[in-house]
UniProtKB/TrEMBL annotation, chain A:
This is Ribosomal RNA-processing protein 41. The keyword Cytoplasm applies. CDD domains: RNase_PH_RRP41. Residues 22-152, 155-218 form the Exoribonuclease phosphorolytic domain. InterPro entries: ExoRNase_PH_dom1, ExoRNase_PH_dom2, ExoRNase_PH_dom2_sf, PNPase/RNase_PH_dom_sf, Ribosomal_Su5_D2-typ_SF, RNase_PH.
TrEMBL record, chain B:
One of its GO terms (cellular component) is cytoplasmic exosome (RNase complex). Residues 96-167 form the RRP4 S1 domain. This is Ribosomal RNA-processing protein 4. GO terms for molecular function: RNA binding. It comes from Trametes cubensis.
Amino acid sequence: MSSRVEILNDGGFRSDGRKQYELRDITIDLSQQGTADGSATITHGLTQVMVTVFGPREAKMRSQTLHDRAVLNVEINVAPFSTGERRKRSRADRRILELAAAIESTFEPVVQTSLYPRSQIDIYVQVLQQDGGLLQACINATTLALITAGVPLLDFVCAVSGGVHSTEPLLDLTTLEENDLPNLTVAVMPRTRKVTLVTMETRLHVDRFRDIFELACAAGQTIHKEMKRAVKDRTVALVGAMDAGAKHPLADPDAMMEDR
Amino acid sequence: MISFASFPSTSEGSGSYTNTRHHPKIEEDEVGMDLDEDDFEEGTQRLTVPGESITSSHAFMRGHGTFVDDEEVIASVAGTVERVNKLITVRAVRSRYNPEVGDLVVGRITEVQPRRWKVDANSRQDAVLMLSSVNLPGGVQRRKLESDELQMRTFFEEGDLLVAEVQAFFADGAMSLHTRSLRYGKLRNGQLVTVPPILIRRLKSHFVALPCGVDLILGLNGYIWVSKHVKESEQEGEEGFDAEAVYSNKNDSIDDATRIAVSRVSNIIKVLAAHFVPLTDTILLEAYEWVVEQEGNVKDLLSDEFGETMVASLGLVPISLLTDVMHTGGF
């Protein structure tokens, strides 16, 4: 044990210099990616994930079409250079399929799929860098990408990971911490404070669960503010550009050239 | 009490520290969320994000882009709030095309099925074009025969582009198209450009003839057909419905000048769309004249720099591809 890096030192700092309840730096990029309907790139510290959303569009797989609502289709690609150990994962990798299923079940109750019968919403996740909190980054990026695609959602979904070091709860874990600590990921809908996902791959003492769960729910609200601000900035920029164009002296829609 | 803070960024600006720290107790823009009726009267547009409460559901009705929960009307998409009397709707900034009856759309055939074609029209489902809603060779009033069903591919094949009008909706919301006008039908002699549907406004006519020898069809679904100009007199008259010409797959000969004009107009549309400028023929024309003055190569148009100068020259604000504006969190 002594050879290991200290998770939480005597001064109360973690290996990357954060305090216990401090989140990593978040950057959000909502610029357009190719022909996608919506796209978002989110960075949590050194974890970076890009999500593109296509749809709602005509379902490709007719057999899986539902006549009363849209189908969510999540596909994940993990870039081989994203991790420390460089190995190529196949698309059918068990862990990746599990991750895709987790994202799908998180968004199923949040996306208003019943508005789009017989359609399909494709969510393509590209993992560019991994340093812990992969699921959390995937979920946050998917929320933002769905919003930029104009897909109706009941609310944002904000995810954050948390762990326990002996009795001390920690938030937003890095790979180093994730490997050593019992940890869980929580996704919350900030308005109603409903929880759409709780996953845990490790064992956690039942007495500790409550602390860390409540902490993660509260941290979700902080992440929500960041995400909301990014979405608002984008909306302001786009609506502003459109207004400027519409108020342009040449832009009177009734002034057709024939009339002149 | 616990407190959170995102990792203090090392980036520029002395005042940026206050921006990057988020204390849960500091409520930033939560003020003014609940509004009363008067707030809609103001000229300013109100923007909203999913999950944001707009107003009480007692006084107002919910429209598209909203839902009701706990006696409140709540937005489900990010965009502008619009109000018509008691009806509240939220229009998403970017979304797929929402069809309405009578809209002119440009689409691409994706499938040939018994007595119908499936058409991709940038909507949430493929549109349907029934065999009975196209003009068949041999007169507009001709009855449809079984032999027509067998040779549907001679009219439209997979991959063909067409211009049509939204005729009706099916129960599941899919749209039904028709091409029963001489202005509608198969498209040739040109190029397709795709833009966000919100940038296309409803116009008196969506068939635009630019003086540079280029015809435009502005589909309300965001598909724009840019093609060689066809003279009015050469367009098929009511009597002379020429099936051969209407369903032909061959382009007319197009001279180099027209080809350059077509690609120039296409590139201008792409640049304007990247800067989120609503498209009208007058703006396009102004831009075209400016581009011709610059005497640049047609492909230079697509460089960011040139595009920004063009948008600025039109008296509009170029959004530097949104990335600068969009970057949040760190600042």
